[in-house]
Task: structure prediction
Amino acid sequence: MCVKGPNVTSGYLNRDSSDDFTKDGYFRTGDIVSMDDKGYFRLLDRKKDMILVSGFNVFPNEIESVMLDCEGIIDCAVIGIPDERQGEAVKIYVIPADNNVTKNSIKEFALDNLTGYKCPRHIEFVTELPKSNVGKVLRQKLREKHIADNPQH
Result:
């Protein structure tokens, strides 16, 4: 989404903002949106969080929304991780409700409810997700955790 108007910033303090604007002055928000036939916008995700699996765009918010319906998942977050075959693969961090939740049950639920390329190929159980002061999951912290836990990649 790109926006322009008197209420939109003209740049960032002490930072080159040339890449943040189009040639005709529209601000690149970094949001991926869709517009319906009535002209309403729907926020899909942030561009920096989009995962590219075998050339397909995968939005973490969509996967998280579906996977939260899986019995036994209290909370979850999705990131893309490097994959030699597909470019990126979907990894999900899950806070389980109890020990009855298994990686296999999560995989089966995903296969039943998501398109194949959107299904998480990597599942990690955690006790908490890194969140901002307003409760937004900090996916960058999860990417950093993945790199720290997998130094060979």
Summary: The chain has two domains: 2-47, 50-149.
